[in-house]
Amino acid sequence: DVQLVESGGGVVRPGGSLRLSCAASGFSFDDYGMSWVRQAPGKGLEWVSGINWDGGSTAYADSVKGRFTISRGNGKLYLQMNSLRNEDTALYYCARDRIEQWLYFESWGQGTLVTVST
Amino acid sequence: EIVLTQSPATLSLSPGERATLSCRASQSVSYLAWYQHKPGQAPRLLIYDASDRATGIPARFSGSGSGTDFTLTISSLEPEDFAVYYCQQRGSWPPVVTFGGGTKVEIK
What we know:
Order of helices and strands of chain A: EEEEEEEEEEE
Largest sheet of chain B: 7 strands, mixed
Mean pLDDT of chain B: 97
Oligomer: heterodimer
Largest sheet of chain A: 7 strands, mixed
């Protein structure tokens, strides 16, 4: 069975940094594209960033471009989040794609909560 | 950036009724999916490429449409189908993903 387990969430002050991790198991991690998707309290889903199978191609939502960096390696997906803002407060999901790039999100983790607050 | 507008925002129906959810794009899209999301759970992929059911999805879920207008139909609502539904697209270039605002299907 596909398993995705996120970690690294917590409470951070505005302007601070956090690194999220997603441990993947039950499938060949290097064959699939991966993404981070978030949901702010009371809001809908928002795609944050995607990375292809070998890490050679990435993309970001305008809301996080220049502040967040996605990467992958050793069966894990990462999201380095810098210059955090109040509006980055959300549940962050790791999602595996159906194919080698980011397109459709076939499997999801349970999420890790990030709270940006003074 | 392509904007996806879902309607209605809320759909109040009874079990056994047919649900028709709409997703309209601000410009033509090539890749369109639908997800189901229940509170406290991870989202679930229902439909991809506008009309293909994902693995394990019951036949009562169907997707249709092309270009800028897409529809998710649930032919006969089961109790477990009451949830929020999102459409999602990815552009060809830039390859940015956007979600619609969601439609909540609630029990009438």
